[in-house]
Amino acid sequence: MKITMPRQVRKQSELGLYHVMLRGNNKQVIFQDDDDYRKLLFTLYDCRLETDLSIYAYCIMSNHIHLLINERTHTMSDFIKRVAAKYVLWYNTKYERCGHLFQGRFRSEPIQNTYELYNVMRYIHQNPYKAGIESEISSYRWSSYQEYMGMSFFCETDWFLNLISENRSVALESFQLINHAFADKDFIDIDDKLGLSDSEALHMVSTRLKWLNLQNVMRMSKEMRLKAFNAMFDLGLSIRQISRLTGFSYGTVRNNLFDK
Fold this sequence. Notes:
The protein is α+β, with helices and mostly antiparallel strands. It folds into two domains: 17-180, 2-Layer Sandwich (Alpha-Beta Plaits); 198-258. Helices cover 46% and strands 10% of the residues. It has a four-stranded antiparallel sheet, sandwiched between helices. Helix 1 (34-50) packs antiparallel against helix 2 and helix 6 (157-164) packs across helix 7 (168-180). It is globular and about 55 Å long.
């Protein structure tokens, strides 16, 4: 008899604030050209009008989307289903394809306080920079950072700016400082895998990869280092976790794994 595991109940935010990530099936590219990015933006705009959710930040990458939303009467599940259904219908028609485009259920995490709010705001806007796509977050066209800098569309920028300061010039200056600071908290991303704690990851590496001494990774040859990164990634460690355990930067680990 097949045993079906129940879905994990989503954690709730007392503030109604959530960081949401929706990614392409098998991490495939879901935005092929500028028209695809624009279509998703207008889809977010339309679905926001159909519901009473607020969108405070977003970043559209080639194979996934980050959103910071405020859930009210309509649930974020309802909102995301509307967005996904409309975009998939348009995308499949355009590219003459059928079937799923997004990977399963979207992921979310609650934002519980101002500390997490500031960190997730910068985390979302820093995605293109951390992925090596842009050298400056202000250069990326498909994030809400542009809206905060004056190119308003549907993102409700006033709420966050007023939270910083009622003086708009002060708020904008502080906003830029916040978004260029180091993000000292991790959030869900496309590379997240098993969700192991660092101590659990260390134990797994020591028991499953007996040939690998993490203290020696910095002194390894390029070939051996690549072997170590791949072995840890295959075990289920995320890129960020490999970065923390080895001392190499996130970008270095990511480039070693995917830029071959």
